[in-house]
Amino acid sequence: MIPLIDVSLVLLIIFMVMTPFLVQQQVRVNLPKSVAGTESPDRPIIIAIEKQGEMNLNGKAVSISMLESELKPLLGPRRDRPVMIQADKDIPLQYVVSVMDIAKKLQVSKLGISVEPPKK
């Protein structure tokens, strides 16, 4: 009985560790590299902009015209939830500026652009 419990716990730990990697690989965004990248302690709202200009809000496809109405309820009343923009490095800058304008209009207090940490 004890070996079965040990195997079950090891499998549980493996699945817990692998799940974030599997979910993150669903959306393909080629992030630019940074020398000093850190992770935010709060769970951010992620706006991913793919190479073709398609946008995802927390993994859900959304257009630029609907981004404001979809983002507003996620921010909450105090607007202190962080918003992280993950933009492909090859897209025009206008996509990122448009998202930043919408965030400013909604009075987002914490806004960041995600970069790929340096390889060690």
Overall description:
- With 120 residues, this protein is an alpha/beta fold.
- It has one domain (30-113): Nucleotidyltransferase, domain 5 (2-Layer Sandwich).
- It has three helices and five strands; from the N terminus they run H-E-E-E-H-E-H-E.
- A five-stranded mixed sheet has the order 3-2-1-4-5, with helices on one face.
- It is 40% helix and 16% strand.
| SSE topology string | HEEEHEHE
Per DSSP, the total helix count is 3
Which CATH class applies here?
A: Alpha Beta
Q: Widest sheet: strand order?
A: 3-2-1-4-5
The pLDDT mean sits at: 82
Short overview:
Helix content is 40%, strand content 16%. It is built from three helices and five strands.
Topology of this structure?
Elements: H1 2-24, E1 45-49, E2 55-57, E3 60-62, H2 64-75, E4 83-87, H3 93-105, E5 111-113
Helix pairs in contact: 2-3
Features:
5 strands; extended; five-stranded mixed β-sheet; 120 residues; alpha/beta; Nucleotidyltransferase, domain 5
